[in-house]
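The following record pairs a protein chain with its ligand, D-malate.
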Amino acid sequence: MIERLKEVLGPRRVTTARDDLDNWGRDWTRTFVVAPGAVVFPETVPEVVAITRLANEEGFALVPSGGRTGLSGGAVASRGEVVVSFDRMNRILDFNAADRVVRCQAGVVTAAVHAFAQDKGLYYPVDFSSSGSSQIGGNVATNAGGINVIRYGMTRDWVAGLTVVTGTGEVLELNRALVKNATGYDLRHLFIGSEGTLGFVVEAELRLTERPAPSRVMVLGLDRMKDILSVLTRFQAGATLSAFEFFSELAVERVTRHRSLARPLGSSSAFYALLEFDGDDESAALAAFEDALAAGWVSDGVMSQSDAQARALWALREGITESIAPETPYKNDLAVRIADVPGFLDDVDQAVGRLYPDLEICWFGHIGDGNVHLNILKPPGLTAGDFYARCDAISPELFKLVSSRGGSISAEHGVGLLKRDFLKFSRSAAEIEIMCAVKDALDPNGVMNPGKLLPDRGRERVQ
Ligand code: MLT
Ligand code: ZN
């Protein structure tokens, strides 16, 4: 396998060095075995095709790899697979001002698209904490969401066209950035969120939009979670929100300590909401704040007076993930309908408290989208193994609560290895069967990211 890969790519773009396997064989998760057979670095679409054809001929498996910032193990190689890194396919290829479409290779980093759009006087609105390293191909493969979804939607909403290499090595150009195209199944959308199980995203055409007005950021303190919906509704009545995030007091405690940040408000609250809105809506937002204060929904609040203050308030939200990382969190990315969020949080708190009263929960997330991030922190006295055993016992209880509300066991982090065995809590047996049939049509030999997303049906041809 290694020799044939070297024939395709040359010896310098195929590596089996221990450090390289460890680095490119994993994403941000730390609980899965990392054991790839090799890492390869194609530079062109024909090279990706050649690697895929070789995998079909020789019977080895491929794991597409972007910025490796995933949190569900979708880019982890545990079984001797060949990791296909897009680090060397990182060029912006084309821009069309009339269409406002930028065409880029899969390995372009999200922040580079932001900078490119800004340079053109435009805006690419999909944004999240890992924008500095996540790559467009990975964003498409996981339909990445983030902090602006309430206003701009997910990655899916910005993909005008895709070039993909299917699991058999076929190159498909999907939609070619057309606005209107009523010619049957839109295969582009099958690849968005497919987590590398159908083929490789090698190029994406992304739509850009006009730059929003300069924004303001507000952080509000809330004593009762149930009031957050009244706050959301009141602010939405007067202001155009581009973010409505939340985090708990425990999150504030961790992030202020970790990043040496000032607390947002004079007193502490059980929960905090972070809102971003257009500067033009400042007086409407202040009126909404006064009303929320009078109604007793919020106890205090602060609004940014400069870009630096806005960034400092955002740091409270964006620094949470790294601040709790040393506590080996059991991470869960869940969605319910927005109206169900407060009741859902209560139910989860109670279920975890009943099973394991000594475990602490750090809540945060994109509450305006109904998307919450549950992070259970490992107590210092517990080994990682014992901690994960406890959390594994919690998972089915948790997913039953999600399912009973018609929610999703993965809102924006994908299914990967982490949630594969729980897919049935969000998708019906009929849906999963159809998904498997789609996989069989595009990747009949099962070379593409086997064991991720869909039930592992032991395809013999891959290791
Ligand atoms: C976030 O919203 O900060 C990201 O989804 C990362 C995380 O959940 O840790
Ligand atoms: Zn998130």
